[in-house]
Structures are given as structure tokens and as C-alpha cells.
Amino acid sequence: MRVACVLISHLRAKVELRRQPHLRDRPAVIVDRSAGKPVVVDALPAATGVAAGMTLEEALSRRPDTIVLEAEEPAYRRVFEQALTALQGVSDRVEGEGLGTAYAGLDGLEALHGGEAALVRALREAIPRDLAPRIGVAEGKFPACVAARTSRGPEAVAVPEEAGAFLAPRAIDLLPVSRETIEGLLRFGLHTMGAVAAMRLELLIDQFGNEGRLAWELCQGIDERPLVPLATEEAVVERIALPFASTSLELMLAGVDTLLKRAFARPVVRGRYASRAELACLLHGAPPWEKAFHFRREVGSREAASSTIRRQLEDDHPEAPVEELVLELAGLGEGAGEQMGLFRDVREGRERRLAEVERQLQARLASGPALYRMAAIAPWHPAPEMRVLQVPLDPAGGDAMRPLALPTPVAVEEGPEGQPVAVRLEREWERVARIEDRWSFDLWWLPAPLNRAYYRVSRADGRQVTIFRDQREERWYQQAC
Questions:
Q1: What are the pLDDT digits (tens) for 213-246?
Q2: Are residues 128 and 203 in the same domain?
Q3: Based on the domain organization, do 9 and 152 belong to the same domain?
């Protein structure tokens, strides 16, 4: 069985450098605290002298200037899963083994690519260049993996027909056996695979049992373990850019509801149930935030999924402003179904009728979304256009979430102290009879800072209008309220 091992070493560090390129020349370590005691799981290239497996205390004692990064395993797994998907575009037999190690079957595919060298090159080009994969090719997964680990450049390492001779000088630390077995072999003075291969098989079995047999066979270059292709799982992905970056939980929930509505409207999802959802938030000035949601019972509707996701997001959500949402609905299956109620859901019937009206209006007007629902995002916000959004009822409405009460540019004549004395409305100048009220705010901390001076003024006919001066742009706007 001809196999290529595609090894992405230091995957966690490469993902962090992708997200935070300014750390390239800085000593930084990635720490996992899930087991209680913080342990280093990877280190960036500049953190010399620090290795995975060290405690954080030990790492800091060696490099006091080390920057500590918290491990974000969902983000690393997502990148690796994307790499596996890319490899599946080249080989129909791809297996993932731990984070960063993948195997691809080569048998029967050489002719499609013009030879094994071209096939291996296609595997390499399927992986993003910044992940810098190393590739080994052999008859069996273990020798291919060892070959990938010995690779130091872009070229793949091919194991010769006599795999045992290739493996003989390699350290036994590469064997996929328990640490106890490795330490036992070292106590017997067996430091290389060649030394293990020279032992009598019976002695290794007596001492180490089945792991002794496995170690001996692998060191001989014998690896009959099958390649287990990844199970294909159906999933749908939807994304939406929010009208403005915000920390408002209600804005985020409105976006999630829109994505769920789109996902469940997909033909591939209708009548089926999902077992989980994954949400990724692209943040302003911060690394992406990700969270997985597992449903106790498979869900077959937007309302059921939204209830679970909303409840969990209320307890755990991003602190930085959210710019874009990406939702993946996964684990699609026929499901066990739900018992139908005796009475029809009134809200479901109302939404069905509204959807039918929406379709008729679109057909008659030959336009995009016709009906919208109003979603209160931040009623307390001083900028009126950030208080309420209109969200299309039609799931195919695209990124049509948009704010209401958007300000429009207006020409204003200023007095000696900067106050408005005349406003040009409907192509005619109107004198300001009286300033009824004035207020201002400076939201300098927002991703798009707002610094406005508002005036509610009366015209000569008694009608009132609200205008403001954008202190950053030095321009005047009329505010719809």
C-alpha cells in the first residue's frame, strides 16, 4: 500500500503566526491549562530553549521574556480539518491521525497526475504555503511518517524498497507505542530502530506484550495497518458581515438567527436534523473567536437550534467587537424525529403565511426582499442608526441586515460659535428659528469612533429637524429618528 504522510509540524505555532504575524521574531509559547497545571503545547521559532511538554514555570525560568498565548484548540482543529479537506481533493483516501499528521493513499492515482512525483506535488500544493508541510512516501504509514519527519526541505522523502535499512538509524522515540515501552527499551540499551529489529521477537513479546510485537514489526519496516479514510460528513456553512462592528450581544444573536434561517432553508437540510453547530466570529482588533454547540437532541428547525445557541451565548460570548459571523451546521442526518403536537404551532403558521406573502410580493415587484422584521440591537445607544436593524424575512436575503435611521449629508450654515443658523432642506435654505435642544457624545473607543454634536432645531414654520456635526469629518448630517 503506497502511502504519503503529510506532516504539518508546529501547527499551533503556525496558526498563531497567521493570526498574529507581529510575533514572528518574539519568543512566545502556547499553553494549555485544561489539565489544571499549565503545560506548553507548542512554541514559536524565536522561543529557543523551550519545547512542548514543559510546564509553564519551567519555560519561564529558561526564557523570562516569553510571551504566553492561551491554546485555542478549536481554531487549530479547524485549520487542520481544512487541510484534510484540501487533501481529499487530490486523493480519495485521506486519514487524519492527531493534530498535524495526515495520510493519503497513492495507489491507482499516479496515472491521473502524470506520475507519483506529480501526485505528491499536488498534495503539497493543496496545503497553504505558510503551513509548510513535510511529506514522506513509503509502503506503509509508519515508514512514510518517519520519512516525513526526516524531511527538511520542500522535496518529499521516499523510503527505498528496503524500509528496514532506512529506519535502522532512527531513534525509537518515533515509535507509536506507550512511553513506558519506550523507557523499557531504552533501559535494555535499545536506542535505535535497528537495535530493536535485531532483537528476537519472542524476547520483546515476553517483556512488552503486544507493544513489543508492534515495535519489532515497525522497526523491520512492516506496517500492515490499513489506511482508514475520513468519514464524509454533510455540513452547510453560512456567513454574514454585520452592518457595523459591535459588542452588542443582541446584534450577534440577530446575525446568528439570520444564518440559522438560511441554513435550514437549504434544500439539503430540509426535513433533516443537525447534531451540532459551530460558530466563528471575526473580531475587530482581536483573534477570531470560535465555539461549538452540541444539541442534546438533534434539531430540525431554526427555532430549536436558536434556543440552544442563544442560551449558551448569553453565558459565553466575544468581548471584542464582532465584524463577521460564520456558522456551520453539521452532523446532518435523518434523526429520530419529534412527536407532532395535537395543535398546530400558531407562530409557525404565521411565519408560513408571511413567507408566502413575501414570495408573492417579490414576484409582483421583481425585486429583492420585500418584508423585514425589526430587531432591537441596542436601544440605549446614543447613535440612532445603531439601535434597530431590519432583517429580511426571506432567508435568501443575503447580507441585507441594515440599520434604520441612517444619517444623510446636509448643508448647514454655521454661526460664529459653530451653531447652525440655516439648513438646506429639499433644495431650499431654511433659517433656524430656534435651537430646541443640544447634546453631544464622543465614542472614541469604538472600531469606527463617533464624535457628534447634535442639535434639534425649529424652522420658521414650526417644524423641527434633528441635525448633527460630525466632529471628526467636520461635516453636517440630518439624523432620521
A1: 999 999 998 888 888 888 766 778 888 888 888 8
A2: no
A3: yes
